Amino acid sequence: MKAKSFIAALALLFALITGPAYAAEPMTVNINTADAATLASLNGIGESKAEAIIVYREANGPFESVEQLAEVKGIGSRTVEKNADMMAVK
């Protein structure tokens, strides 16, 4: 019985050590090319705000920085801050 417990403990230890290596990398959304569905997947961005981002982008050209997203009506700097790690401009 002790051998089974030892093997189970080793298996658990191995899983804990190697688990982060297999974790998925966070998704990065390019706000200059993303479609409405992808933009809506961001925290605090629903369908209507995603459409507003696209309308703004089409009227003003590509975003030069993630922070510029706060210029879109209905999107504040707080929303930009919450999503900063998940957004990029390319």
Automatic annotation (TrEMBL):
Annotated keywords: Signal
Segments crossing the lipid bilayer: none
GO biological process: DNA repair; protein secretion by the type II secretion system
Residue ranges annotated for the Helix-hairpin-helix DNA-binding motif class domain, each copy included: 37-56, 67-86
SUPFAM superfamilies: RuvA domain 2-like
InterPro entries reported for this sequence: Competence_ComEA_HhH (IPR004509), Endo/Exo/Phosphatase_dom_1 (IPR051675), Hlx-hairpin-Hlx_DNA-bd_motif (IPR003583), RuvA_2-like (IPR010994)
GO molecular function, one term: DNA binding
Segment forming the signal sequence: 1-23
Domain of life: Bacteria
A single Gene Ontology CC term: type II protein secretion system complex
Protein name, per record: Competence protein ComEA
